[in-house]
Every structure is written in C-alpha cells, then in structure tokens.
Amino acid sequence: MGAFVLLLKENEDERVVIYRYGPNEHTMGKIQLNKDTKLFSEIEPLPDSSHSNKFYFDRAAQRMARCFVKEGGIFPDKMTFES
After folding, report:
1. Burial environment of residue 60 by CB neighbours within 10 A (0 to 12, 13 to 18, 19 or more)
2. pLDDT along the chain (83 residues), means of 10
C-alpha cells in the first residue's frame, strides 16, 4: 500500500515552522517543528478518526525533517510525502 501525505505551510519564522498535514485538503491536522530544539509537536490531530493520526504525523515529520537537514532549512509552501 502506498502512502501519500499532503503538507501545506501555515506559518514560518526564525524559530518554528507550522504545517497542516493529512491525506487531502479537507482532512488535516497541524504539526510544528521547533528549529532550535529540533522537536516536532502535534498542534491539532486529524479530525477524522478513520485515518491514523500517527501514520500521517510520522510521515509529515519525516518530510519536514528532510527539508531541515538535507534541503538546507528551506520549507516550501506545499509539499508531499509519497512512497
């Protein structure tokens, strides 16, 4: 089974970046990366209990970590995780 996670940037400053994440634009939670501590926080879980919040949160965090480490801290307005 393939995985698809949509991430839409909501806010970014020098300390944090916040994305909405989920399987589509209608079912989204909210995740934050603290750039100083390198810790992810769930701000809002997915509103639909038929989707595994942990599944989508983990993949959103993985995609954001890639931006932070491998892409020089550049966080685009829209990105996806696909496998």
Report:
1. buried
2. 89 97 95 97 91 92 94 95 88
Task: Say how many C-beta atoms besides its own lie within 10 A of residue 45's C-beta.
Answer: 16
Which DSSP string do the residues of the chain spell out, in sequence order?
Answer: ---EEEEEEEEE-SSEEEEEEEEETTEEEEEEEETTTTEEEEEE--S-TTS-HHHHHHHHHHHHHHHHHTSTT---SEEEEE-
Tokens 């970014």, residue located: 12
User: What distance in Å separates the CA atoms of residue 39 and residue 44, rounded to the nearest whole number?
Assistant: 16
- The CA distances from residue 7 to 18, 22, 79, in Å, are 10, 7, 5
* Residue 80 confidence (pLDDT): 96
The whole-model pTM stands at: 0.92
